[in-house]
């Protein structure tokens, strides 16, 4: 597997210039990728400037007073394509063709949530293959590595992903919790035997906006619901009961409930057998839903004997 052409050209320039910093910022909501290449000030050392042809390649170039330059490219990507192929890719700069995939696995974690896994060792290995091809004399390779170790500071590759919420990661998290960055120092690429980066970077990111509260009925049918019905309702209600309907209100972690069971299409008021267990179970469910942006204050809950729970907001 090979890296996208633009990244490879930057690596080739790096091998000779030794002073470069590359940022790839993936905006998951707009499906836009910003690529920024910082080239340090010319210190008189030989080697190409990777930003020299920035504007000819469709980028915008910014020059700073200290002699450094920043080349900025914008391109697109498709999360649907990521999920179909299982890898991160984007439209190559100056082309309409999709880039070759990067060593970043993509999978669906939940509705509107994706998991990204960057194989750092593969990332480094692919760059090394292009920086130090097999036909390069060993003496030249060692001399280049020695020179780069002396010149490279904190530069490197910074691969950032911005969504609605970063739920879990071992990367660098922004203060607002929306952006995660995977950092790979150039020293790790030059000297992989002594790399400081982890073997893998991972991030679980919610792409879509979370709803502010429960706006429409939702139905649960899982083992916890069935367990509650079996332990708290079955055997304590008349045979043939059709449903239990609970009007519940939660305020400051306190629960108030009014319950009816339905049999022969007629409602009968009753008290839940173990009100403490019922309140605790409801509070737990309420907190889980609130974390997912489905909070509510007052709701109608309908439990069916087959093992389902329907929650309908009343506020």
UniProtKB/TrEMBL annotation:
**Record bears the keyword Signal:** yes
Q: Where is the composition biased (Polar residues)?
A: 50-62
Name the PROSITE patterns on file.
PROKAR_LIPOPROTEIN (PS51257)
Q: Which residues form the signal peptide?
A: 1-17
Which keywords describe this protein according to UniProt? Signal
Give the residue ranges for region: Disordered. 39-62
**Name the record gives this protein:** Lipoprotein
Query: In which organism is this protein found?
Result: Marinobacterium iners DSM 11526
């Amino acid at each position: 597997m090979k890296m996208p052409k633009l990244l490879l050209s930057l690596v080739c320039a790096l091998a000779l210039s030794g002073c470069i910093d590359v940022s790839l910022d993936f905006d998951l909501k707009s499906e836009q990728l910003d690529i920024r290449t910082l080239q340090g000030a010319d210190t008189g050392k030989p080697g190409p400037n990777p930003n020299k042809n920035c504007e000819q390649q469709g980028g915008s170039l910014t020059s700073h007073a200290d002699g450094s330059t920043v080349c900025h490219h914008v391109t697109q990507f498709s999360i649907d394509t990521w999920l179909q192929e299982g890898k991160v890719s984007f439209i190559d700069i100056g082309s309409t063709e999709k880039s070759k995939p990067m060593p970043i696995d993509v999978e669906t974690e939940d509705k509107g949530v994706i998991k990204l896994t960057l194989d750092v060792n593969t990332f480094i290995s692919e760059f090394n293959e292009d920086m130090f091809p097999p036909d390069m004399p060993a003496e030249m390779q060692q001399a280049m590595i020695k020179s780069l170790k002396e010149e490279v500071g904190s530069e490197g590759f910074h691969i950032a992903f911005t969504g609605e919420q970063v739920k879990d990661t071992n990367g660098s998290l922004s203060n607002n919790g929306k952006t995660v960055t995977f950092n790979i120092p150039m020293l790790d690429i030059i000297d992989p035997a002594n790399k400081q980066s982890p073997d893998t970077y991972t991030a679980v990111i919610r792409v879509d906006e979370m709803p502010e509260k429960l706006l429409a009925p939702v139905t649960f049918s899982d083992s916890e619901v069935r367990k509650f019905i079996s332990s708290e309702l079955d055997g304590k209600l008349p045979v043939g009961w059709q449903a239990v309907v609970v009007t519940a209100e939660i305020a400051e972690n306190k629960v108030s409930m009014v319950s009816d069971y339905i049999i022969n299409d007629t409602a009968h008021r009753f008290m839940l057998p173990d009100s403490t267990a019922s309140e605790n179970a409801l509070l737990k469910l309420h907190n889980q839903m609130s974390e997912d942006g489905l909070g509510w204050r007052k709701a109608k809950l309908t439990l069916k004997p087959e093992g389902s729970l329907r929650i309908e907001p009343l506020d």
